[in-house]
Amino acid sequence: MIVLTGGAGFIGSVMLARLNEAGYDDILVVDNLASSDKWKNLLGKKFTEYFHKNDFLEVFEDELDPREVEAVIHLGACTSTTERDMDYLIRNNYDYSKTIAEWCFEHEIRFVYASSAATYGDGGLGFSDDNAVTQTLRPLNPYGYSKHLFDLWLVRNNYDRLCAGFKFFNVFGPNEYHKGAMSSLVYKAYHQVNETGALQLFRSYNAHYKDGAFTRDFIYVKDCVDVLMWALDTESVNGIYNLGSGTARSWNDLASALFSAMGKPNNIQYIDMPEEIRSAYQYHTQADMSKLRAAGFKNEFRSLEHSVADYVQTYLSQPEPYL
To answer: Does the model's pTM come out above 0.70?
Structure first.
């Protein structure tokens, strides 16, 4: 059995599909569906059981036989960068993760989990996933700090040698529709262009960057789950790794790829950035992928243009845009 937390979420549901594709169907899915449409991400996928995240801890500690569990893939978390309830984030993202991790370590069960590039804060300390750098990072928001605390706990106790964690950069792709304000620019931009014919991007307030020229490390969700599958199958790979493409591309590049995929002419409108975010805005992110490559991951990542075209044409433009 594989336990997959966050299995109905964005990355989790794509991972569920990838597990099914690889022949896994004895999967216990953990999530919080509530009243959202996230349940649609489970359509057509094979799994043996579903538990609400709160009910799962009781089952997990009292009833789950560790001899039946091959691995735990822990992707469940509150990922809202605007969430301000730090006590909630500590319980949900830190304490919950510790409970699951300690159980896996005690029973020698493979543990693969999601960290976040939000731990890097404004990027002033770079984007190296070396443990020495990890201990110096200063996240900008409560979400990033909650993920950082778990990374620090692992490193402090040398538990990072017993598991594989991944700092996801700017992930986009199918099954993110339920994320609302936290969905990717590709998703938001597709609908904006469909409705208005134009795409609005922020003006630059940094002399080193022209309008729309600030950069992000965009990575397609299908590439992310390929890495997770590799980590699941390669138990000798342990540590905390960046998971981006390793290439920084501008918002203008993304816009061009989107217009091309939609068969429309470029029409970008630059608008003022809200004053409240100007001082903490990230103008550049780029994952240092040398640690993952040194660990043995050889696959090439899809280009931004290929990924955006696949997302738009295979999913977003379809009546049921789900993977």
So the answer is: yes
